[in-house]
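Quick illustration, no need to memorize.
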Amino acid sequence: MSLSIRRVVTDHDAESRSIVRYDEITTNIVSRRPGHASTVIWSHARTPVDNTESGDGGLRDVAECAADGAIFRVVQYGPGVAPRMHRTMTVDYAVVMSGEIDMVLDDGKVVQLRQGDCLVQRGTVHDWVNRGTVPCVIAFVLIAAEPVKVAGKTLGAIG
């Protein structure tokens, strides 16, 4: 399974003119389980973001989002991807770029998402299941969020 994502990142030169800082195919591909591959396009340790910060935000080690941070990541889920029920401490904005995938919630409800579908994941327990024959690629923006509280109980990250 190969993930090939082009990222273009703009910046400013010494005279404050707009420039392209990076225009490349990402090479920071990681796999956290069989059938999974992801690449971080950009990340920040805190928001609001300082757009004059130096360094490549795509190279940060960001398995999880920082307490005040944000991550832009693209994930590929291959057919039969290993299960991983989890909850993050973020609000996640997602767009299915190609393929289709089932989002399974902790009560067993299944929602099928297809190319072009958009999802807002608000700190809920979920899994991604690809029952198809082709990989599904999803772009995610994760933004740090306050812990979810239900009936006076604070729900933490799992998985």
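The two ends are 23 Å apart (CA to CA).
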